[in-house]
From TrEMBL:
Transmembrane residue ranges: none
Cross-referenced PANTHER family: HISTIDINE--TRNA LIGASE, MITOCHONDRIAL-RELATED, HISTIDYL-TRNA SYNTHETASE
Binding residues for L-histidine: 83-85, 114, 128, 132, 260, 264-265
Compartments, record wording: Cytoplasm
GO function terms (MF aspect): ATP binding; histidine-tRNA ligase activity
Keywords from the UniProt entry: Aminoacyl-tRNA synthetase, ATP-binding, Cytoplasm, Ligase, Nucleotide-binding, Protein biosynthesis
Protein name: Histidine--tRNA ligase
Length: 429
């Protein structure tokens, strides 16, 4: 196929054989979030470019080199959203739903776009489930976010394969003092830093802590630590968070180098990481951003949130073989009908059954076909039972009921009794 008719590099189709696992994952998260009292919000996937520059920060990887930015027909600069927080903050401000200290516990799901180098677990269109809480400033809500994800890992069967890393970045004042100390130290070792870090030292020095370069990492061993610069309030907040995680029994590692890529974080930052996915090991990341709303022109409003990468979590479920058996079967019953009269009767019968069992996954054969070919399709569909309507069944107003997986003889069931019979043998999802 010519290149222009192929999907864009790093932007993937999610094929029908993959969607059951995606839907299982998304459904599990959605149910959990509902149960903890979070409400869904849906934002556009395109926003004014300025929004992301203002909120994410001009000197971040995302804004410097990863955004899909274009001019629309009016000459406005627009950007495909690289993350969800900026748009979510814009939306709550625009609609005034965080005014007067109103608490909002919100979540969203959808595609994000970043022009990165595509590789396993890293794509140019990827999908996140994200969550933001406004106007709750205590460590209790930071803890709730982490506890909720911990429960999610448990439900998905991947808890043993993820590790929680925690840090506190303090308030912007204490972070400012720390930044000064770090810049002073790193400047004294300027020649030993890699080129990228030398550049970051001028633009966004905390990001040097994030370096993958071994020489720079060696320099960082003796660098000043954020923990020594934390103000009392942030320290108490962080202790409060740790106490709550301890109370619930959630293990964590303190990682003083965890700074996160975006400018807007303060106090709590955390990442859930795994060693099962190679280099792309962070599956969920977040933190507190108490200054962001004000920075975007709103009244002071605290915020805390996280985002998880759906591709990476789906990959983990596959890698760890944590795929529930039921999700691969999408048909309960397959109805085969032979001849025109049987086909008409089958159609009506199927609708009667669906009236009574709205959750039954009943597939009616389409495209007619011989006994053999319809039976083959029934089997291939994964259905547990085939229903058979031929001349004999039509004459007696019954339907043949044949188990397709394992034991059991074919029986005849009266049309009127079919729904009741199916209700007893198919567990409805
Ligand atoms: P990374 O360090 O892996 O680039 P990040 O810090 O840029 O991640 P965030 O902006 O915090 O990531 O996004 C939250 C989550 O979204 C990440 O932890 C990851 O699971 C997922 N994610 C981020 N970028 C990508 C991408 N390009 N492809 C797939 N998933 C991604
Ligand atoms: Mg990134």
């Amino acid at each position: 196929m010519s290149k222009s008719l192929q999907a864009i590099r790093g932007m993937n189709d999610i094929l029908p054989e993959q969607t059951p696992l995606w839907r299982y994952f998304e459904g599990t998260v959605a149910r959990l979030l509902d149960n903890y009292g979070y409400k869904q919000i849906r934002m556009p996937i395109v926003e004014f470019t300025e929004l992301f520059k203002r909120s994410i920060g001009e000197v971040t990887d995302i804004v410097e080199k990863e955004m899909y930015t274009f001019e629309d027909r009016n000459g406005d600069s627009l950007t495909l959203r690289p993350e969800g927080t900026a748009a979510c903050v814009r939306a709550v401000l625009e609609h005034g739903i965080t005014g007067g200290g109103q608490v909002q516990k919100l979540w969203y799901i959808g595609p994000m776009f970043r022009h990165e180098r595509p590789q396993k677990g890293r794509y140019r269109q990827f999908h996140q489930i994200g969550l933001e809480v406004f106007n709750l400033d205590g460590p209790d809500i930071d803890a709730e976010l982490i506890i909720m994800t911990w429960r999610l890992w448990g439900e998905l069967g991947i808890r043993d394969a993820v590790k929680l890393e925690l840090n506190s970045l303090g308030t912007s004042e204490s972070r400012g003092r720390y930044r000064e100390a770090l810049v002073e130290y790193l400047s004294a070792h300027h020649d030993k830093l890699d080129e990228d870090s030398q550049r970051r030292l001028k633009t966004n020095p905390l990001r040097v802590l994030d370096t993958k370069n071994a020489d720079t990492q060696a320099v960082l061993v003796d660098a000043p630590k954020m923990a020594d610069y934390l103000d009392d309030e942030s320290r108490a907040h962080f202790e409060g968070l740790k106490a709550r995680l301890d109370a619930v029994g959630i293990p964590y590692v303190l990682n003083p180098k965890l700074v996160r890529g975006l400018d807007y974080y303060s106090k709590t930052v955390f990442e859930w990481v795994t060693d099962k996915l190679g280099a792309q090991g962070t599956v969920c990341a977040g933190g507190r951003y108490d200054g962001l709303v004000e920075q975007m022109g709103g009244k002071p409003t605290t915020g805390v949130g996280f985002a998880m990468g759906i591709e990476r979590l789906v990959l983990m479920l596959e890698t760890l073989e944590q795929i529930p058996e039921e999700i691969s079967r999408q048909v309960d019953v397959y109805l085969c009908a032979f001849g025109e009269q049987a086909e008409l009767a089958g159609l009506a019968l199927a609708e009667r059954v669906r009236d009574q069992l709205p959750n039954l996954r009943l597939q009616v054969n389409a495209g007619a076909g011989s006994f053999k070919s319809q039976f083959k399709k029934a089997d291939k569909s994964g259905a547990l039972y085939a229903l058979i309507l031929g001349d004999d069944e039509m004459a007696q107003q019954v339907v043949g009921f044949k188990p397709l997986r394992g034991q059991g003889e074919q029986q005849s069931i009266a049309w009127d009794a079919l729904a009741a019979h199916l209700a007893t043998c198919v567990v409805q999802g």
